[in-house]
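Sample 1 of the test manifest.
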Amino acid sequence: MHVCGNCPDNPDCQTCVEQLGVGQAARKVLPPRPISIVHLLTGTKVEAELRVVSRLVLGVYAETEWKPGRYELELAADFRIIASTVGAVHNASYIVLDIEQVLRKEDMFDRLLLDEFHSWQLSQELQPECLLTNDEQSLDSERKEMIVQELKRLSILRKLREVHMYVWEHDSVKPLGESQIDLVAQEEINRLARQALKERRGKREQSLSAARKRLYDLHVFPFDDNTCGVAVIDITDAIAMERERNRQQWEFCRDVVALVTKGKLQLIDEQGLFEVKRQGERKVSCKIACSADLGVLRKAIREQIAPFGISGSSVLHFTVAVNEAATNALSHAGGGVVEVNLLQKDEYCRIIVTDHGRGISLADLPKAALQPGFSTNNTLGLGFQVMLQYADMIWLHSSSKGTTIVLDYALQARVVQKEV
Amino acid sequence: MDYRIEEEKDHAIIYLEGELDMSVGDKLGEVIRQYGERNQAITLDFLGVSFVDSSGIGSLFYTTKDLLAAGKQIEIVNIQEEIMDILRILGFAEALGVPLKQV
């Protein structure tokens, strides 16, 4: 096939477009895009120009001896096309290739998505190097508009003091603009950049600066020229604000739950839990790993509190309360430990049920305490209703590391007959 | 948990025995469904039940609801007082709408 003398300077010339034989469906690439193209059989790599695109065929130009067969076109690291020659190839510098597969980011298509190609091409032309080599005249209004947009975005980014940007090249990190922070995370950036280039995709990690007690969000994006773009975002303040918000939400939740349960159910933090746990004398500890362990637990509790001379029904009811807490641990965390303690010279029995599940979410807590019974289809609430009824006091500590429920039961106040 | 069943003239009496906790699982519900489907009336006798909790009567609750919706007659009888107290707190009686009879 021929390439006419007009190309690539005459944008209106359609000679190379017509040779694709797909009519209006083909689009001229202006200016022609430099690409790498590999003959898959021989592995020969040629620097070529992509001149015409359509959904199913491409027009490619190179001063080379074209061989028939399949080719891989590399437009960018994440944009490749497998295509094959159509019919015989005669001493021509311009050839037409049939698209077999388009590999774009993580997706695979059997045709080229023209809109996506167009926006990709525009974005590629906004690469700093391309912009500098392009003379002013060739920038049409669409491209100018994009440049203006990009510059505005940059000026906004520059105003954000938490965001710092760098270019990584061969294990060195050069700041874009003035260097704002000491790069404690240099080693991590090196590691991430090497990974990003190898996997050809962006990497993200959080990094703690030990010296300054700051927390950074590191983003590393591979570029086509074996360098990487690095964004370091200081998230220390954002995290602190988030913690404060969570704290307020937790306190609100604690107050609501206490109000609704008339102070009987108290949410406590880690320190509060420590205070509650350190009192008393450990009598027995039961591991709950399967439902059969629940029967063993109930027997152990009966044995601990029945000798004080408490009525059988009261003993049963407190046992049900403890059993509900242990059942929660089993069904939501796969198991837990129940400790039985006696306090203040046997005035109180204190039961501590601990699991290492994912915890009860703050949003679910008031619901658990507020909604009674089967009618609401609230299985968590069911257990709490029983505990609230039969225990004298309940403390609840829940975090992403697990849940602890502490149940207090007054012994001496319930004694109906002293042992003889 | 153990159980014993008497069937007579389209009426099944299921005598429950022991502790109804999580280890009962779906077993209780399956027994009730099986006898509920081939009889018009079901009586659950709770005289031998010494313990109930929310997960133990869960399957009993949902199966009973299904059978009631299918037009069956169900009653729960001979409930010990302290067991009745637990069922009351669980909201079992109101939610189910069947007669619960104490011993």
